[in-house]
Amino acid sequence: MNEVFEIVDRYFQEYKQVWIDLCNIESKSSDKAGVDKVGRYIKKLSQAKGFGIQEKTFNKAGNYIAVTMNTESSLPGIAFMAHMDTVHESGKFGDPPVKEKNGRLYGPGVADCKGGIAAALLVMNVLQKTGYKKRPIKLVLSGDEEVSNSLSGQAGINFIRNQVRGYAGVFNCETGMPGKITLGRKGILRLEVEIKGKAAHSGVNYFRGVSAIKEAAHKIIELEKKSQENATTYNCGIINGGKAGNIVPDQCSFSLEIRYVNQEGLKTAENHVNKVVNHSYISGSCASLNEVSSRLPMEKTEGNVELFKVLEDICCRYGLEEMSEYYSGGGSDAAYTVDEGVPTVCSVGPVGEGNHTLDETAVIDSLASRAKMLTAAVLSPYFE
Predict the structure, then answer these.
(1) What CA dihedral angle connects 109, 111, 115 and 119, to 10 degrees?
(2) Model's pTM, two decimal places?
(3) Other CB atoms closer than 10 Å to residue 52's CB: what's the count?
(4) 275 near 287, Cβ under 8 Å?
(5) Residue 230 has what pLDDT?
(6) Which uninterrupted H or E stretch holds 368?
């Protein structure tokens, strides 16, 4: 394995620059042009390396891509995953967006999760140089993961499912954490609650009015009361309502994000939400509920645990990093690969932190260490 690791080190600087280049292309989920620019960069690089490309185009979302090698092999394949979009508005990180300081990169997507794209491409390049031909290898890239695939819809989710169906394993290269690998994640359901009341002058006819904002306040308190640590949580994150300070508000809306562990938890949450939304705490008010987006949970399976043990053993054997299992409240596209019955581990990209903030950062050297771990996993007896 030392010879393989030497190849990783040999190509490290090239893919560090790929990492920087990807992050200097700003690509918020809603910026299709930006996400597609990232995709064009990846396609050009991949084709120059001799890899194949499959692409699914969308009107609103950035196009999804699969980078492929060893397509002639008939054995079940091994897939890497990542996403090309970020949550950041263009220009927020300055010009250029990416900065390097004290062994770290700072910028949009350096951790979440363009570092993962660079790591996966590095692994594929290393496998190619070793002459690896045994199984198909694939990198599956989505363009709207940060908004729960809501811009691509079911077609985007189906692209992911179809690309990994029947595969032997999936490594989702989301943000890495020191000494942790994710084996399960919560599902996400995002809703919008609309409330109607009755407008009235707050000085002259206050008691004739029905405050939609007051009704929303009651509902929010009742909804969030049921939040439990390590179980289902309810977060009302955005509130809009009212027209003027001297008018009893006849309209209010708020967002509701539910994070849940499994389908049983989702059913309980839906019953709770329907009960609260359908009950009027202020007489004369009414409410309606609309689904914005949803994502399945990445349920922890025996296959996930077995694949984790492969990485745990590799890291111990080669002195890379001591690993432990982790369960995350955040969602990812790994939900769909697990639902397809494919053993999956998540958060195996370069180590970073500050996701979704202007302090997003990643450890540069972890690009090499995570690439070594993933390359060794593909070459391990588990996939013989």
Answers:
(1) -160
(2) 0.91
(3) 14
(4) no
(5) 87
(6) helix 366-378
